[in-house]
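Obj: model holo form, ligand = fe (iii) ion.
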Amino acid sequence: MKTLWQHCHVASMAQGVYSIIEDAAILTSGERIEWIGPRQSLPATADARVVELNGAWVTPGLIDCHTHTVFGGNRSGEFEQRLQGVSYADIAAQGGGIASTVRATRATTEEQLYASARQRLQALLRDGVTTVEIKSGYGLDLASERKLLRVIRRLGAELPVTVRGTCLAAHAMPPEFAGRADDYIEHICTEMLPALAAEGLVDAVDAFCEYLAFSPAQVERVFIKARELGLPVKLHAEQLSSLHGSSLAARYQALSADHLEFMTEEDAIAMAAAGTVAVLLPGAFYFLRETQLPPMDALRKHGVKIAIATDLNPGTSPGLSLRLMMNMACTLFRMTPEEALAGVTLHAARALGLGDSHGSLEVGKVADFIAWDIERPADLSYWLGGDLPKRVIRHGLETHF
Ligand code: NIG
Ligand code: FE
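Output (holo structure tokens):
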């Protein structure tokens, strides 16, 4: 079925740049875009159903390319502790932090995990998200990681959103392996990843490279196994210290390296050469009250593509609005609203390996777009969250939820 969407303006992101079409029309055929351009150049389209968009601004559907949406419990108690001056690293050292969410997640049934994650994901969808990446990483044993990845697959099957599932087994040390990090890495490589990949539960492999998590040498073993299994890699890198995880990620053609506050110019050069996207997470920066800013000048100078994501997780970024993150990327990291929009569309798609089909509005790409009732595209970064009036079109069909 063909649909002609007209009387709108489009921020298309076509050909990898921020580009505007005023008084545009979009012709969709099934779930794809068949034609897009200025309305007066539209070829004859007698057989299409016509939808009036009443002057809305159309953008690609938003893509949240880094989340930990599925978890048990929450950590508002740790939030209060941190407000009293206890650091994230101190809390982790005392058995809190990721380890406390692992305990809660293991004790929560698959059904309960699904129900709570579904609510969080629906908040993201109401904000204009049509594609999301969700990581495991709060299970840390085969059965519990499988439970999380199955919930992630079910969310994609039951909600109107494209979901990519990432295995983050190398997130933290499970208590069973206390003091034996290399053994746990071996277990991930020989048992967990091969089994979870064979079950079709894994689209990418991630790890946490940090002094309080895993070393670059340990991460590299995980990357080698991922490559053997034909899976792309990503990395939490340079969040709290500089271990050059982002350069390691670039050596393995990672889709992205994420956080990056402590990265160096050399890391930026390596990422640019490899096409590894820099995923910045202003929610975590804000929530941990960090002061070390990601090196925006070096990223721009070397042409590293910059994406923005919520990092939705119970410890460092309980963020339920991707547009709020766009605002924070502008106010905290001094990105422009145009960069922020590219960061949640074009570059976020690349960070998920979906650059050929998603992230911009071009002929042949998937017809995922939002028609926003706003004055200017910059309004998306201007408002601090909230439920902006919009129509959501996914796979060529208007979606209500
Ligand atoms: O992206 N950095 C590691 N992982 C998460 C935090 C996880 C947690 O504290 O529960 C992050 O910030
Ligand atoms: Fe994260």
